[in-house]
Description:
Distance between the termini: 88 Å
Order of helices and strands: HEEEEHEHEE
Strand content: 15-25%
Shape: elongated
Number of helices: 3
Helix content: 25-40%
Strand order of the largest sheet: 4-3-2-5-6
Amino acid sequence: MKRRESLGLDLTPVIDVVFILLIFFIVTSVFKKEELALILDLPTSNAKEMEIQKEQVFIELSQDKLAIKGIEVSFESLEDNLKAIKDREKPVIVRIDKKVEYQRVVKVLDLLQKYNLSNLALVTNEEKK
């Protein structure tokens, strides 16, 4: 009597290809760090580094752009975003380019004060010795 062989698809090469694609996409993907949107030239300081445990709100300000939580916005949209924050103790991390006009900085600080967001931290680069 002849023995019948089952005709099936060998999945080993398919699984190999899937793993190779998975590794390729993991290696080539860009991981976003801290929801930063703008490339800024930060001022330097010798202040000590502080770690904040709660969820943070990131605001970035350059000479001609403004971003909150990694998304470029206008000042009107920034105000809407700040108004929507329920927890007034939530840390607000502000990154400001050192070449920004003082009036733009004051405008952002006024909006933060208007919505009682006083848990504020300014980000700087470490001063080189």
